[in-house]
Specification:
Shape: globular
Largest sheet: 8 strands, mixed
Strand content: 15-25%
Order of helices and strands: HEHEHHEEEEEEEHEHHHEEEEEEEEHE
Oligomer: single chain
Structural class: alpha/beta
Length: about 375
């Protein structure tokens, strides 16, 4: 017979595995767990599968052709040499989740992950908690937009957007645009803004570029070679890969699609200086030049936030300590989709199948070796 104290305890659903994040990484892990008949659920904060891709800027296209962009058990539709848009990727993920009947719960934001003394993970969401023997964090490499503190000092009349907010040039005020940050999104957005007729200036250090057009005919011969190198050579196993990981995690990788020649041809002003201060409400470069603009698009990246995972150890670079996705500090905790999780391709859709396949195998192996019989799917226990 249950006492009054027991009845006051919250009801928790229990699963063997909870996957946090329903993007390509969470779905790829989930599809392989589903194939094995594993008990799991996927939690995603967006209203609909694929919404993260729907929220990208309109001109975005993947950096890998469709032949590399499929997920386990499903090729990406369309011509193999085409480069999918963000909208096409969103539709693909939605279809993928439906085809494999993946148990995705949308509109669920995870606030905290902790581990009880008995080893059970407790995943807290708004108003409820779920239990699991294992947790896969598939929220991607970056979480929170990063803005420099000086952004608050700009003249209120200057329209400011972070790259995560930018969709198209229609959001901008008439007049010149300063794009700050010259990595992938900065170059893409600068080209997009210039094409809409804005006088555009792109500032920030140059980190190198691929010396050919990734969509040109020669690329069809070159890309397979580069893909092999990115998959098998530029990984955590080699000195070259470990150096690349440090470089990419600290300041981004080389430009893959838009090159300096493309920016010049589009009339984009290019300066490798940083914005270091604000004077009279205007952004000022390192050499003291004040830039007179009506808009600033901050392509300054994202800051990592893993504070919601209790007890997680981070490396000196601020990234979780892990091996092939398995946390080295918390048994039963895994990651999918970290920047350079294993190699260069970890940050591309084309690297999802390999990285997530490893994570899924580790989850299934641990579940198989665990003592006792896992709870039935959707079983309810009292916490």
């Amino acid at each position: 017979m249950q006492g009054d104290d027991d009845m006051d305890q919250p009801v928790r659903e229990r699963f063997d595995t909870i996957i946090i994040g329903g993007g390509q990484n969470g779905l790829a892990v989930g599809a392989q767990l589903a194939r094995a008949g594993h008990d799991f659920v996927i939690l995603d904060r967006h209203p609909k599968v694929g919404d993260r891709w729907r929220a990208t800027y309109d001109s975005l296209r993947l950096y890998t052709p469709a032949r590399y962009d499929g997920l386990p058990g499903m090729a990406f539709p369309g011509p193999r040499q085409s480069f999918p848009t963000g909208a096409q990727m969103a539709a693909f993920l939605q279809e993928y989740a439906e085809r494999f009947a993946l148990p995705v719960r949308c509109g669920v934001t995870v606030d905290r992950v902790r581990r009880d003394d008995d080893g059970t993970f407790v995943v807290s969401t708004a108003g409820r908690e779920l239990e699991a023997a294992q947790v896969v964090v598939a929220t991607g490499p970056q979480l929170l937009p990063r803005l420099p503190a000086l952004a608050a000092d700009l003249d209120p009349g200057i329209r400011q957007l972070h790259s995560s907010e930018y969709r198209n040039a229609g959001q901008l005020a008439d007049g010149p645009v300063l794009v700050v940050g010259a990595a992938h999104s900065g170059a893409d957005i600068a080209l997009d803004v210039a094409a809409a007729g804005h006088h555009t200036h792109l500032v920030g250090p140059h980190r190198g570029e691929i010396p050919f057009d990734i969509e040109g005919r020669p690329a069809q011969l070159i890309l397979p070679v580069l893909w092999f190198l990115a998959t098998h050579v530029i990984t955590e196993r080699t000195p070259l890969g470990r150096k690349a990981r440090s470089d990419i995690r600290s300041h981004g990788g080389p430009l893959l699609r838009v090159r300096r020649a493309d920016l010049t041809a589009a009339g984009v002003g290019r300066d490798e200086q940083r914005v270091t201060e604000v004077r009279g409400g205007r952004p000022v470069l390192e050499d003291g030049t004040a830039v007179d603009v009506r808009n600033v698009v901050w392509c300054t990246g994202f800051r990592r936030d893993f504070a919601w995972i209790d007890g997680l150890e981070l490396g000196s670079d601020g990234w979780p300590e892990q091996h092939h996705g398995a946390s080295t500090s918390i048994d039963g905790l895994y990651f999918a989709g970290l920047l350079f999780q294993f190699g260069f391709t970890s940050m591309l859709v084309g690297g999802t199948t390999r990285d997530c396949g490893r994570v899924a195998r580790l989850v299934l192996r641990r579940a198989k070796s665990a003592k006792g019989v896992p709870s039935p799917v959707g079983a309810v226990t009292r916490g």
